[in-house]
Design a protein that fits this description.
The protein is an all-alpha fold and 94 residues long. Helices cover 70% and strands 0% of the residues. The termini are far apart.
Amino acid sequence: MFASYNYSIIVKLILIPAYTLELQVSWLFVFLVLLELTWPGVTLTKMKRLLVRSIKWLRYPLFFTGAGNISTKKSWFIGVIALDIGRCVVSAGS
């Protein structure tokens, strides 16, 4: 038994030099493997659902609700905000 153990160490030292880094498995990979072993197909199913939902969300048209009826208060507020942002951009540039 000890002879096979010694030979395995020798083979390991021959095949993997001492100056190389050892491979380490990340905890995320271990978690994903355990998750797949307990609940097969969960990661691909969740990824597919997420991609389908995001593509459906991107296909919806963009609506600005209430943009057609801007009151004078809103226009003054938008103007003040625009001037403030412009002032900040100019002062950051100089």
